[in-house]
Amino acid sequence: MEQKSNEYKTKQREAILEYIVENKEKHITADEIITRFSKQDNPIGKSTVYRYLDKLCKENIIRRFTIDGSSSACYQYGKDGDSCHEHYHFKCEKCGELFHVGCQLMNGIKEHVLEEHDFMIDSSKTVFYGICGKCRN
Questions:
Q1: Burial of 52 (0-12, 13-18, 19+ CB in 10 A)
Q2: Checking CA distances to 110, which of 14, 61, 89, 125 falls within 20 to 30 Å?
């Protein structure tokens, strides 16, 4: 019986990782994962989701983002390379959506800050706050 339990956990973990990979362009919260799998015959428990997310972070398969003190942490697949270092994050203060923005001009600012001010910006952790186009209209 114990082996089946381990197999079950492995299947759960595979399902979580598959879901993250399928949504690798998005930032996903643990609650979104829990909700996604709650509709199955064998839902994945909250503690299992959090344990596995922590493990994936330690293995550098996913990245964990905490945007502010009031929002839940979100996760993004990152094994395909350091793609998150190539863009910035914009967060809408009205709807809460988090966007990836790759912009050559902003990369120029990053280079300027390094050369002129001897400070290296980590764009993967840089978040600009404002109002998105949908919310402004």
A1: buried
A2: 61
Q: Note the pLDDT tens digit of each residue in 26-78.
A: 888 899 999 998 887 778 889 999 999 999 989 888 888 776 666 677 888 87
In angstroms, the CA 78 to CA 74 distance is 13
Three-state secondary-structure class, residue 29: strand
What tokens appear for 38 in the block? 């709650």
DSSP secondary structure string, 41-105?
Answer: SSPPPHHHHHHHHHHHHHTTSEEEE--SSSSPPEEEE-TT-SGGGGSEEEEETTT--EEEE--HH
CATH number at residue 60: 1.10.10.10
Q: In angstroms, rounded to a whole number, what is the distance separating the alpha carbons of residues 132 and 22?
A: 25
